[in-house]
Amino acid sequence: MANSSGAELSAPVEREAQHFRNYAFGGYRRADGLFDIEGRMTDTKSYAFPNDWRQTIEAGEPLHDMLIRLTLDEAFVIREVECVTAAGPYEICPAITPAFAALKGERIGRGWSRVLREKFGGRHGCVHHVEMLRAMATVAFQTLYGWQGRRKREAGQDQGEGPPSGEATPGRRPGFIDSCHALASDGEVVRTQYPQFYEVRKS
Length: 203
Fold this sequence. Notes:
Blueprint: E1 19-29, E2 35-45, E3 49-51, E4 55-57, E5 64-72, E6 78-87, H1 112-120, H2 127-154, H3 188-193
Antiparallel strand pairs: 1-2, 2-5, 3-4, 5-6
């Protein structure tokens, strides 16, 4: 499996395919100024197997097929939620989707995983929808920050892709610092782009 840089995993030993999980996410700016963040997750097998509700699930037929749309405003506040279970292993699976309407009014940001855990933990949710919702936060950041940066560039203000520099104001340390290796507080990216929050590497 290669990426655009040409890098790929080493050649595997001889093997037989068993299970495939596919995620697809997208971010969209709507004509009304809001943003749609969408996700879809499917699970398939390379073989047919029996299922009490669906009798037989054929090879390549989704065991799980879950879809979500979150509609956000520019402040990352959720205005609308739509969840669909198009395929599941049990007849009752789709019954939980209306529960996710409880996300209306919540803001995607720090504490997002805690919100999901508190609202939809255990029997109060669907683990597959929650997994997608957790990942959709980063899709929202990429979508909205990218659009904000593009808008600034078009207005003649130099701004690269990523979190807007306006978040890096004195006295307010951006939440994305130390969120990964590239954005380490003692790293080169923070030193050059957010110098007020740069920390000298400790020996």
